[in-house]
Amino acid sequence: MKIYILITFFLFNIFFSFSQKFNKRIERKIKKIEALDGAHIAISLIELNSGKKFIAKDENKYMNPASNIKLLTFLASINTFDSIPSVKYYIENDTILNFKSTGFPLLLHPFYPDKSLINFFENKDQLVYHNSKNKIPKFGPGWSWDDYNYYFSSEISAFPIYGNVVSFYKDSLSSKIKVFPKFFNNKIKVIDKIEEPLIERGEDKNVYLVNEKKFEINDTVQRAFITSDSLFINLLSKALKKKIKIKDEKNSIIDWKTLYTKYTEDIYKALLHDSDNLVAESLLLMISKNKFNSFNSNQAIDFFKKQWDNFLLDPLIWADGSGVSRYNLITSRALISILNQIHMKIGWKGINKLFPAGGVSGTLKDYYKSKKEPFVFAKTGTLRNNHNLSGFLIGKSNNKYIFSIMINHHKSSNTDVRTAIGDLLFYLRKKL
């Protein structure tokens, strides 16, 4: 027994010494990278299987995660849903389809449309929409008030449609500005002043000023629209070419059935590969609706903050589902714990399938490319002067690691910071 303790103690000291030396090497490496000069930097890295800690640089410092917060939303979602509900419904007199929202975000989505839901609606003669009694804030806490015009700040709503955005493009034949969905055709005012913005929408109207001079052929530009129940019904009616009645949702003894989506993987790819903010916010609403029968993101957040207390070393300061909020704060070692839980839930096969791969897919398609197979599978997180990358790394030895690199308050361009993170990742791959 004594010999076993001595051996364990000896091995621990060896590894601890190695870890300290590795940390010092990383510190020296960081000091040589000009793009990181003056930035706040936190880095955590552990071995996936053993949990051995290799890097712990300011791992207990709270940082703004930006879209890395979507990792929390993802974990909350896979812990809630085996299958994601697309709509609640009941059929009346064999012909009337009554339906209400689950918070599902892919109805007629420009990139990830749920065709099974559309087919479900098309196969019914009459449709009645029961709108939610919940008043849902259109923007998350800590969002920039003047970003309302942009697709990344599209309004949060009970039943998103077309991703709550309008798509504009310049027709290659006529050179005229086209719009999708066509419902917004009469909401466009074309201008030709070069000094004006490309597309601008007023704060209180779905009217878009489109600068024809700045629009290039084959460009597609998206802008958010102001949501409402009446607009939702109009858009869906136009798409289905049938009238839809609307009713206020009431508490009743009606046994609502659930239609589940066939496109769960698409939702998670929209979340992790494309970092879609509306999808992230919708997932939080769906979780809340599932657990508490109410569209209230704060309820979902509070629930999981308490549930995850048992494995998180640091409390979460968690404000929204997407990471747009400046109020979000988290430590790098907390993100490591979140990523470890994700791996335990979906395994390496799931990581391979759903996480962006360096040089191959998603937000990492143009970065961290390997000559052979990708060695980085991770989620980016970017706000002005903040850039983070958290996920999984395969070392030269083929051992797998969980890492979180958080860089806040940098003075350099995002491109230079991405390059700097690439330098660190290739260095780590070589040494591990």
Topology summary:
Elements: H1 2-31, E1 40-47, E2 53-57, H2 70-80, E3 85-92, E4 96-100, H3 115-122, E5 126-131, E6 165-170, E7 177-180, E8 188-191, E9 199-201, E10 208-211, E11 220-224, H4 229-240, E12 244-248, E13 257-260, H5 264-272, H6 277-292, H7 297-307, H8 332-354, E14 376-383, E15 386-394, E16 400-408, H9 414-431
Helix pairs in contact: 2-6, 2-8, 6-7
Tell me briefly what this model is.
With 432 residues, this protein is α+β, with helices and mostly antiparallel strands.
Structural notes for this entry:
The chain is of the alpha+beta class. The protein has 2 domains: 22-78 and 289-431, Beta-lactamase; 86-260, no CATH class. The chain contains 9 helices and 16 strands. The chain has a 5-stranded antiparallel beta sheet with strand order 2-1-16-15-14. It has a 5-stranded mixed beta sheet with strand order 12-5-4-3-13, covered by helices on one side. It is globular, with a radius of gyration of 24 Å. The two termini are 33 Å apart. The model is unreliable at 4-18 (pLDDT under 50).
